[in-house]
Amino acid sequence: MTRFLDCRGTAARYFDWVAREAAAMRRKPRLATVLFRGNSNPASLKYRDLILRDAERLGIPVDGHEAEDEQSLLALVRRLNADRGTSGLMLFYPLRCALKDEDVMDLVSPAKDVEGLHSMNLGYLIKFKRFLDEARGIKCVVPATAKAVVKVLQGRPEISIEGAFVVVVNNSMRVGKPLGLMLENLGATVVKCYDKTPRVLLEELVRRADVLVTAVPDPSFEIDPKWVKKGAAVVDVSYQGNVDAKALEGVASFLTSPDNRIGAMTRAMAFVNLVYCAKNSPVRGPRVPSLG
C-alpha cells in the first residue's frame, strides 16, 4: 500500500517550533530578503511572497529589499551583513545576472546565511559538524530544501535511511549536492544523477533505488514510473512533477503527492535556520570577501 508523505503537516510542526522559539527570545529574529529585479523570475517572486506570508503569520519582522542591478545588489548585501538588527539574509536564486550565484552566496555573511549556501556552512556538511554551539542547542545551518527532504523522510520511522541505496536526480548547490552529503552522513549510499547522466544509466540506478529523490526543474523531464522499485520511497521536489504520482500508487511505499510537495517544508526549514542565526548573532559578523 502506498502512503503519501504529509509535507505540509510536517512543516506545520516546525513552524510551530519557530513561533515558540521566537516568542521566547530576548533578541527577536529579523529577516531581510533581497530580490534581484534586473531579470525578474516569476518563481522567485512567488517564493518571496510565500516567505512574507509565513513571516507575518509567525510574527517575525521582514525587511524586503529589491536590487535593480548588480552593483546595488552587492551594496545591499554588504549593508545587510553589517546591520546588527538583521538576523538573517535571504536572496532568491537563480539571480540570472552577470554575477555567478555561487560567488554571491559567499558574499552573504555565514552568520546570517539562512539558506546555508555559504562555503563555510556547506563545509560543515562535509565534516558532519552538526552544532555551532551544542550547549545552547544551536545547530549549523544547511540548505533548506535539502534539509526539508531529510526531515520528511525521517518523519516516517518505516523509512530507513541508514543502509539505503538512494538516487538523487539533481546535482545543484541548493538541492542535490547538500542532500547527498546529508544522506551519506546518515549512513546511506548515495548516487547523484544530472543532465550528463546517460538515460540508460539513469534507468538502471532508479531501478535499484530504495529512496528516489528527483528535483529537475525542466518541465519536459520525466522518470518512467515503470523504473521505480517496488516498495521504494519517492520524493518529487520539482514544481511540475518529474514522475507520475498516480502511476506509482501501489508501487512506492511512500510518495509525495502533487498537491503536497516539499515547498512548505523548505520554507519552514529556512525559518528554523533564521532562529539559529538569531540565537548565534555575533556582535560583529565575520568578514566576508568582496567581488571588487
Write the layout of secondary structure elements.
Layout: E1 3-4, H1 7-24, E2 31-36, H2 42-58, E3 62-67, H3 70-82, E4 88-91, H4 101-105, H5 119-127, E5 131-133, E6 138-139, H6 144-154, E7 165-169, H7 176-185, E8 189-193, H8 199-208, E9 211-214, E10 233-236, H9 245-248, E11 254-255, H10 263-279
Helix pairs in contact: 1-10, 6-7, 6-10
What attributes characterize this protein structure?
six-stranded parallel beta sheet; 15% strand; globular; Rossmann fold; three-stranded parallel beta sheet; 292 residues
Structural write-up:
The protein has 292 residues and is of the alpha/beta class. It folds into 2 domains: 132 residues, Leucine Dehydrogenase, chain A, domain 1 (Rossmann fold, 3-Layer(aba) Sandwich); 116 residues, Rossmann fold. Helix content is 39%, strand content 15%. The chain is built from 10 helices and 11 strands. A 6-stranded parallel β-sheet has the order 1-11-10-9-7-8, with helices on both faces. Strands 3-2-4 form a 3-stranded parallel β-sheet, sandwiched between helices. The chain has a two-stranded antiparallel sheet with strand order 5-6. α1 packs parallel to α10, α6 crosses α7 and α6 crosses α10.
